[in-house]
Specification:
This protein has 295 residues and is an alpha/beta fold. The chain is 39% helix and 16% strand. The chain has ten helices and eleven strands. Helix 2 (44-60) links the parallel strand 2 (34-40) and strand 3.
């Protein structure tokens, strides 16, 4: 029996519709959420991602401003820019698109962002609040994964969850979020990584597997317990002579072998990806409400 395909695009569209209605209510109170995205250099992937964020903001009524900077922008110039955005009353959320050029100290810029405008959830203060069980802004991709599980009817509470990857953006924060005692989490969480001797020992026992290793098609069907829920975070390009562009996008899961074993699975593209932007928008609306005393 083939797995249920979890449609992240549909779920993200539902969330955006909910946010759009909430933004209408805010505007009726004279409040407009605002998001500033800073793009440094000419990285095509970063430029596309920022463009997608701006377009999503426009569709649901968030004021969006994209600030493009030359690759030669200095660290001190970035400090001045972020400091100015921190002061602006029309901006509720600030994101600095990663990666930054090597000559800019990215962690130092992240720390400089006002924690109340840190809608990426990367500031150490927001990371600390997450670890303390009092989250303000959770990182967008892990937040999207929790939403996908809830809205697709696969609540992880009481389940055995294995996360493949311990990265700062997904694996580590997600492990904290899923192990927190709430109605939508409260799972038993194991993180597997390059130091794990035999990852399949863990994945074969998992009710839910989140693949976030950055290794194309790593998780195979024979590594999965029948009926398990598979959340694929990976975005990898591989050579494919049959594809018009000579390459195609795949996840960290070998979809073809996994879909006949799993109970449910997210595709790549169209799974976790759309959720990341939706959660960024959700954090921006939340930041606006906090800054205006509406929460």
């Amino acid at each position: 029996m083939s797995a249920e395909i979890i449609d992240g695009k549909k779920i993200s569209d539902d969330i955006k519709s909910e946010l759009k209605a909430e933004i209408v209510r805010l505007k009726n109170q004279g409040v407009v959420p605002g998001l500033a995205a800073v793009l440094v250099g000419d990285n095509p992937a970063s430029a596309l991602y920022v463009k997608m964020k701006a377009k999503a903001c426009e569709k649901i009524g968030i004021y969006s401003e994209v600030i493009k900077c030359e690759n030669s922008t200095t660290h001190d110039e970035m400090v001045d820019l972020v400091s100015e955005l921190n002061k602006r009353e029309d901006i509720d959320g600030i994101l600095v698109q990663s990666p930054l050029p090597d000559h800019i100290d990215e962690p130092a810029i992240t720390v400089l962002i006002d924690p109340g405008k840190d809608v990426d959830g990367f500031h150490p203060l927001n990371q600390g609040l997450l670890l303390a069980g009092r989250p303000r802004f959770e990182p967008a991709t892990p937040m999207g994964i929790v939403e996908i599980l809830e809205r697709s009817g696969h609540n992880p509470a009481g389940k055995n969850v294995v996360i493949l990857g311990r990265g700062f953006l997904v694996g580590r924060p997600l492990s904290v979020m899923l192990s927190t005692k709430t109605r939508l989490t409260n799972a038993t969480v194991t993180i597997c990584h390059t130091g794990t001797p035999d990852i399949s020992d863990y994945t074969k026992k998992a009710d839910i597997i989140v693949a976030a290793m950055g290794k194309a098609m790593f998780l195979k069907g024979d590594m999965i317990k029948p009926g398990a829920v598979i959340i694929d975070v990976g975005t990898n390009q591989i050579d494919d002579p049959d594809h018009p562009k000579g390459k195609r996008l795949v996840g960290d899961v070998d979809f073809d072998s996994a879909k006949d074993i799993a109970g449910a699975i997210t595709p790549v593209p169209g799974g976790v990806g759309p959720m990341t932007i939706a959660m960024l928008l959700k954090n921006t609306v939340k930041a606006c409400k906090i800054r205006n005393g509406l929460i």
